[in-house]
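User: Hello! I'm new to structural biology and keep hearing that structure can be predicted from sequence alone. Could you demonstrate with Cytidine deaminase? Please show me the input and the output so I can see what each looks like.

Assistant: Of course. The first part below is the input, the amino acid sequence of Cytidine deaminase. The second part is the output, the predicted structure written as tokens.
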Amino acid sequence: MARQLQLTFTFDVLESLAELTPAELNLLKHAQHATEKAYAPYSGFLVGTALLLDDNSVHIGNNQENAAYPSGLCAERTALFGLSALLPERKILAMAVTARRKSEELFIGATPCGACRQVMAEYENRQNSPIKILIQVAPSLFYQCHSVGDLLPLQFSRENLLIKG
Ligand code: THU
């Protein structure tokens, strides 16, 4: 029988807003606020992301849709690409992600899609320090992950391209 490897990862499960630290709550509020400017006329699903940077500032993003559906972009990548274009030297300490349906106030949450995880991993590798991820997965349920690497095991990275430095 082939040798087997098992990968496990541990994350925190927070079952109410009261379990978040003030800093986590503040970042989540920025992500929730960011849903207000999402452009999602086709899905009606508003996603907001907030990035906490190493100078303690916050950079946000939201999903931007398009009549040619695949041309749209998720909130996480909108935030990350925007930040990298503007302030490429800043390190990201943490990222919060949430979502709600248009015309509804309740945040039902969303977990980052696979393509966003790949982009998140790129920036985590580039800055060489972990990005914590706070994901709202239901109105009163949050997952706190310690790094993007945990969310994307066996990831494709620059090492696969044999690029050094
Ligand atoms: N969406 C995000 O913004 N982030 C995710 O991680 C999942 C999905 C957006 C894309 C699209 O605008 C809408 O949610 C419905 O899929």
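User: So the tokens describe the shape?

Assistant: Right, they're a compact way of writing down the 3D structure. Reading them back into a model, for example: The chain has a mean pLDDT of 97.
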